[in-house]
Write the structure tokens for this entry.
Amino acid sequence: MTRRPAAIDDESLIAALRLAAGRDPVPGHVPATARAAFGLRLPGAATALPVAAPAPRGVRDGGEERLLRFTTAGLTVDLEVTSMDGLVDLAGQVSPCPEEGTRVEVRTPHLTEARELSATGQFAVTGLPPGWFSVVCHRPGQVPVVTSWTRIRP
């Protein structure tokens, strides 16, 4: 039995030739998206990286919420992620308890929600779209701490 290669349609052949020649144009949305992503960076900020979050004792895993923990030298950001009706809710706590005037920003590529922290370092943001997010903690007189970008799926 002789095997024949699969037939290639004209559009696929032309696209492959453009790629090989280096003449495939960049889609119009790509440069705009790249500029928007570059605008989200925070030069000089300390990055809090994800670490394993311990499960709370005595609580059953309902599967509806996720716990995330980000740490850097001297600061921990704990997040509880809940999805409902296609939207995402975040409840968080910054520890050790920050000083007065500390605020957080929950950022997505399309919006930023700012919150003042409670006296115990807690905050909440509801109704976020699913996708990528990052939390920035602004403390008076110190460099901002930013969590690494994390993807939330409902």
Observations:
- Residues 46-53+64-152 form a domain with the Immunoglobulin-like fold (CATH 2.60.40.10).
- The CA atoms of residues 92 and 154 lie 18 Å apart.
